[in-house]
């Protein structure tokens, strides 16, 4: 069968076939080149340009300006902390859920429970934020309930960093659960039983079987959660209150209200570089931890 | 092994409660007469009536629906070509190409949206329907390809070779042999593209023409101002629609074999 396939392949002239493949890939590849690669290159170029018309020559002034007032540094630090906190929260909650979905629940329950986890993917980000605001707002359902126990019903954590944390956790938890679930589901039950028979307790089973085996899922989960959370600007804008700004809000303020090309581009580039560096460090650390474990 | 991990089960229940409490409250509030979302609860359907009486939310929903359908259609067409091309160039080169596709997912939409706005401003296109259309299409394209390409790989090439040998044109082979086999994955990819575009706030925020409000933009503006009970009604309808679509997509492409997430 393989032969027949090869013969038919050879029967078509090789040059024409290559041209056809190229033609098929052209629209998609062209779109990626023109609408993802080119804009990102332009962004980097713009960050080194003296003025908005790309004619002022090379300059570092935009970067100097960004660091001059210290706003970027403090907001970037705050955002990275928020990103790490939300990611950690997601990991801590998602591991038990993913393990339960993969190994504890029955086959039938699993299908429906996974569908439930996917629903937020298909729901608007803004509606998720909005529903959390409704839940948390002063005089709202949660505060009315707490008022029964003597709390002030008009007080609320809404418009604080705690509310932003909760909303981001709520939005991104499903990503982490699905990533970890797909990795844990592939672990052979026998391997877990073997570890148990050999006397490994729960902690040991986690550190020497589940953790190293689920590492790929954990790494993609961290990428999917940490990067967008650190760059979020809608959540702090809607629920963070007056002191809720994050680095995404700062970048956004250079493009939405005003059009401050050079400075905004420099901010975006720095943001991307720092995020990439942190993600690489986290990946490296986890990989190192996983490898060390697997040797035991 | 069953019934042995009480704390794992407890956390599962807690997490599911956390995930669905806000949505449940919004559905409850959509039937509450209070315009500020406060108790005591008094049943009403007036927010649904308000929603359908032709306000801004209804108009924005219609605009978003038509726009997302066009984007999904374009993404499916281009995604089919791309997946077919990836299949022809062999697995190793295809892996490189799918890395390229992934980059469109990994770069934060905030940065990508801004970068595209800079490009469009420089080329004179500016904020326009065309720019918004292109931006949203390139962002949903990876989802379509990631769903369609694996389905295409699972197809045996023999039937296609036979059809070719019998004299069918490549286009006819694709239309009558290849496409029917991967139709569920194509439908799942199309729905995924539709939903991601319909809900995409960030890209539309930067690329939409001034004054044009798609649904995410309209909701953003309303939520900034404060509590609006007709958003509750809209949110409830959208959650119900989402549940239906998730069930449909999981039937089509996700549940059976390996899908996008597992």
Question: What features would you describe in this structure?
Answer:
The complex is a heterodimer of chains A (296) and B (262). Chain A has 296 residues and is mostly helical. Chain A is 76% helix and 0% strand. Chain A has 14 helices and no strands. In chain A, helix 3 packs across helix 14 (261-295), helix 6 (125-136) crosses helix 8 (161-184) and helix 9 (189-197) packs antiparallel against helix 10. Chain A starts with a helix and ends with a helix. Mean pLDDT of chain A is 85; it is low at 9-13. Chain B has 11 helices and no strands. Chain B has 262 residues and is mainly α. The longest helix of chain B is centred in the first third of the chain and has 33 residues, at 56-88. Chain B has helices spanning 6-29, 46-52, 56-88, 91-106, 109-123, 129-154, 158-165, 170-199, 202-207, 215-225, 229-254. Chain B is globular, with a radius of gyration of 22 Å. The chains are: A mainly alpha (296), B mainly alpha (262).
Q: What is the structural class of chain A? A: mainly alpha
Helical coverage of chain A, percent range = over 70%
The termini of chain A sit apart by 45 Å
By secondary-structure content and strand pairing, the structural class of chain B works out as mainly alpha
- Number of DSSP helices of chain A? 14
Helix content of chain B: over 70%
Question: What sort of overall outline of chain B do the alpha carbons produce when their principal axes are compared?
Answer: globular
Note poorly predicted spans of chain B.
254-262
Membrane topology (chain B): Multi-pass membrane protein
InterPro entries (chain B): Bact_Polyamine_Transport (IPR051789), MetI-like (IPR000515), MetI-like_sf (IPR035906)
Subcellular location (chain B): Cell membrane
GO cellular component, one term (chain B): plasma membrane
């Amino acid at each position: 069968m393989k032969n027949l396939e090869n013969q038919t392949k050879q029967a078509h002239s090789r040059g024409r076939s290559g041209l056809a493949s190229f033609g098929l890939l052209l629209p998609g590849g062209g779109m990626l080149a023109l609408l993802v690669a080119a804009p990102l290159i332009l962004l980097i170029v713009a960050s080194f340009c003296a003025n908005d018309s790309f004619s002022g020559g090379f300059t570092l002034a935009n970067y100097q300006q960004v660091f001059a007032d210290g706003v970027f540094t403090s907001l970037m630090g705050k955002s990275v902390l928020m990103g790490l906190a939300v990611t950690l929260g997601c990991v801590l909650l998602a591991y038990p859920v993913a393990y339960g979905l993969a190994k504890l629940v029955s086959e039938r329950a699993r299908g429906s429970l996974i569908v439930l986890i996917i629903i937020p993917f298909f729901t608007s980000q803004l509606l998720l934020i909005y529903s959390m605001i409704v839940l948390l707002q002063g005089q709202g359902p949660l505060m009315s309930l707490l008022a029964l126990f003597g709390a002030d019903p008009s007080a609320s954590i809404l418009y604080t960093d705690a509310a932003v944390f909760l909303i981001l956790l709520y939005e991104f938890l499903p990503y982490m659960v699905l990533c970890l679930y797909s990795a844990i589901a592939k672990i052979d039950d026998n391997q877990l039983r073997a570890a148990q028979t050999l006397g490994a307790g729960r902690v040991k089973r986690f550190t020497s079987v589940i953790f190293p085996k689920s590492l790929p899922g954990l790494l993609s989960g961290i990428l999917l959660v940490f990067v967008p959370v650190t760059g979020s600007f809608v959540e702090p804008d809607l629920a963070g209150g007056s002191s809720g700004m994050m680095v995404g809000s700062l970048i956004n303020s250079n493009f939405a209200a005003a059009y401050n090309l050079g400075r905004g581009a420099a901010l975006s580039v720095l943001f991307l570089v720092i995020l990439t560096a942190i993600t690489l460090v986290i990946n490296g650390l986890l990989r190192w931890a996983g490898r060390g474990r697997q040797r035991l | 092994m069953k019934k042995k991990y009480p704390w794992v089960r407890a956390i599962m229940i807690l997490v599911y409660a956390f995930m669905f409490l806000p949505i449940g409250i919004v559905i409850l509030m959509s039937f509450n007469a209070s315009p500020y979302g406060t108790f005591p609860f008094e049943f009403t359907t007036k927010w649904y009536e308000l929603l359908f009486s032709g306000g801004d939310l209804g108009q924005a929903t219609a605009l978003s629906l038509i726009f997302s359908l066009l984007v999904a259609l374009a993404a499916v067409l281009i995604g089919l070509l791309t997946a077919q091309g990836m299949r022809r160039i062999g697995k190793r080169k295809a892996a490189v190409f799918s890395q390229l596709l992934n980059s469109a997912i990994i770069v934060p939409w905030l940065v990508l949206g801004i970068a595209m706005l800079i490009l469009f401003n420089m080329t004179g296109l500016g904020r326009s329907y065309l720019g918004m259309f292109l931006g949203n299409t390139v962002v949903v394209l990876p989802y379509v390809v990631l769903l369609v390409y694996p389905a295409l790989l699972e197809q045996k090439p023999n039937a296609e070779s036979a059809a070719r040998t019998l004299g069918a044109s490549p286009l006819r082979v694709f239309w009558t042999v290849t496409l029917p086999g991967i139709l569920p994955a194509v439908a799942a990819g199309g729905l995924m593209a539709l939903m991601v575009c319909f809900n995409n706030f960030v890209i539309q925020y930067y690329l939409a023409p001034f004054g044009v409000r798609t649904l995410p933009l309209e909701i953003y503006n309303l939520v900034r101002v404060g509590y609006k009970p007709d958003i509750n009604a809209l949110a409830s309808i959208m959650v119900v629609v989402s549940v239906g679509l998730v069930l449909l997509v999981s039937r089509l492409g996700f549940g059976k074999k390996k899908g996008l997430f597992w």
